[in-house]
Design brief:
The structure is a single chain. By secondary structure, this protein is mostly helical. 50% of the residues lie in helices and 5% in strands. Strand 1, helix 2 and strand 2 form a beta-alpha-beta unit. It is globular and about 60 Å long.
């Protein structure tokens, strides 16, 4: 579909100078963009050195790097997550979080030792507590298990949906704060705008193809930062 949409990007023109690739430093995002490049520019049709996948700006592509880029972002996130509405939601959902975590640990899908650390954060202010996993990690693992029809006994599709909703809730309340969205995604949005304005051209003046390979949280943050819709 991309080759049809952008017919000017011929495999023969795919050089390290005409194609720029940025990815977060995670195997899955690197592999995703490798697959994209393989489909757009099959190796048999290319010549020249390999196209570089730049992961040096990984933290700029993630809304919640650890540690955060600025103290202001940490403080504003903490203030939002201490609000009455967020605390009430957390208290209401906690029994579900405990039940889902125990089901995964008892099924030996996850190693309990790996999740004992009180300081292990898995996303937007949501920390693992002993053997109780964060909503972010629960949603991630349950989605994968459901996709492969490997949910442990006692867990249902409704549990997967509720875990996803609970994880998304934290992103929603945080990214509705325009200043947090700006602090979290400012560097990436500036780079995207610069690229879109025509700054990304090679020595011959040919418009470069620039690809960003990130996460669902990256897309969530960009929607908020560009004010495309309310997350």
């Amino acid at each position: 579909a991309l080759r049809q949409k952008y017919p000017d990007f011929l495999p023969s023109l795919a050089t390290a100078e005409s194609v720029r690739i940025f990815s977060t430093a995670f195997p899955r995002t690197i592999q995703s963009v490798q697959a994209l490049l393989h489909g757009l520019f099959p190796p048999a049709t290319r010549r020249g050195p390999p196209i570089v996948i730049d992961t040096t700006h990984s933290d700029d592509m993630i809304p919640d790097p650890v540690p955060r880029a600025t103290v202001e972002q940490e403080e504003r996130e903490a203030a939002v997550l201490r609000s009455e509405a967020v605390l009430a939601h957390a208290a209401e959902a906690e029994p579900l979080r405990v039940r889902l975590s125990q089901a995964l640990l008892e099924a030996r899908i996850l190693d309990p030792i790996a999740y004992q650390s009180q300081s292990a954060s898995w996303g937007v202010g949501d920390q693992a507590k002993g053997t109780t996993l964060s909503w972010n990690k629960l949603a991630e693992v349950l989605k994968c298990l459901h996709s492969y029809s490997r949910l442990p006994p006692g867990l249902t599709v409704d549990d997967v949906t509720r875990a996803n909703e609970a994880g998304a809730y934290r992103w929603t309340v945080l990214m509705r704060d325009r200043r947090i969205a700006q602090l979290a995604m400012g560097s990436l949005t500036a780079a995207i705008v610069k690229t879109a304005s025509g700054a990304a051209r090679d020595a011959s003046g040919l418009q470069k193809l620039v690809v960003w390979s990130g996460h669902d949280s990256t897309l969530f943050g960009l929607l908020a930062a560009f004010q495309l819709e309310a997350p």
